[in-house]
Design brief:
- 29% of the residues lie in helices and 19% in strands.
- It is of the alpha/beta class.
- It has a single domain, classed as Alpha/Beta hydrolase fold, catalytic domain (Rossmann fold, 3-Layer(aba) Sandwich), CATH 3.40.50.1820.
- The strands form two sheets. Strands 1-2-4-3-5-6-10-11 form an eight-stranded mixed beta sheet, with helices on both faces. Strands 7-9-8 form a three-stranded antiparallel beta sheet.
- The chain is globular and about 50 Å long.
Length: 291
């Protein structure tokens, strides 16, 4: 990867009753702006290693609602997250940009593109959480108060970022991550603890669990996808089971629903592709956008 590219001071954009945090990287050229949206439980600074590969492009890494510095209560509807991002793009005056999303972030960017034609010129979606139509059919709740998502049990408190790094470096799936990405996740994924002692997860366990619990909330996403008439690259990893964090959740037919969709199947990668191999992810992005 290229040399470290420092981020500008974080900006906050008021939307939906919260202040949405966006990390910005200035460019040394005139490339099209890149807007990055992260996966559940992470934050906008995990894209730093990939941002470094595009010095000619101004870049924006969003902390989605309830993640990073975008402090918020648990989430019950993914469309609220998309509205946050749309508000940011409008306030920042961004049009014709390239959107790059991972997991829930990829789902979010596709919904934003459907609702706001012209904001994006292209999308690169790494393993979007967009499943087959039957997933969104009415049925029992995925998780309940009596049967919450396992994320609710995540360790919340750490003495420091270094303590978090030491605790998780050898654990699955973090042991798959590129070291720079892993350390960025830890260092920027903590905030001062409410108790006044040490640090705590910026994405609280109850917020992360709520995202998984509400993953059926945007049942119209597949219909919305049909209206996104821009080039969209869908990068899919290996699928094993839906309950495996490392498995691809993406409907294999998604690219065929998109008017200008392209499917890239990568069975050599897990759902954490951009974290495992940011250089490879940057290569894929660069080839698709001509950078």
């Amino acid at each position: 990867m290229s040399t470290l590219r420092p981020a500008s001071p974080t900006r906050f954009y008021p939307t939906g009753g919260i202040d949405l945090a966006v990390h910005e990287w200035a460019s040394d050229g005139s490339g099209v702006p890149l807007v990055f949206a992260h996966a559940t439980g992470f934050h906008g600074r995990v894209w730093g290693a990939i941002v470094d590969a595009f010095p000619a492009h101004p870049a924006y890494g969003i902390d989605l609602r309830g993640h990073g510095l975008s402090r918020a209560a648990p989430i019950d509807d993914w469309r609220i997250v998309a509205r946050d991002v749309a508000d940011f793009l409008a306030q920042a005056g961004l049009e014709g940009v390239v959107g790059i999303g991972h997991s829930m972030g990829a789902h979010t960017l596709l919904q934003v593109a459907a609702d706001n034609p012209g904001r994006f010129a292209r999308l690169v979606l790494f393993d979007p959480v967009i499943l087959a139509p039957e997933f969104y059919a009415p049925g029992d709740a995925l998780y309940t108060a009596d049967n919450p998502h396992p994320a609710i049990r995540r360790k919340r408190d750490f003495a420091s970022a270094e303590a978090m790094i030491e605790r998780f470096a050898s654990r699955d799936p973090y042991d798959l991550f590129d070291r720079r990405v892993f350390e960025d996740y830890c260092r920027y994924g903590l905030v001062p603890a409410a108790s006044g002692e040490g640090m705590e997860l910026a994405c609280a366990p109850e917020v992360e669990a709520s995202v998984y619990a509400s993953s059926r909330s945007n049942g119209a996403i597949l219909e919305a996808a049909k209206s996104v008439d821009i080039p969209v690259l869908v990068v899919r990893a290996l699928h094993t089971t839906l309950n495996d964090f490392k498995s691809s959740p993406t409907w294999p037919e998604l690219a065929h629903v998109l008017p200008q969709g392209t499917d890239l199947y990568r069975p050599d990668m897990t759902h954490f592709h951009p974290f495992q191999d940011p250089a490879d992810a940057a290569r894929i992005i660069g080839e698709f956008i001509g950078a």
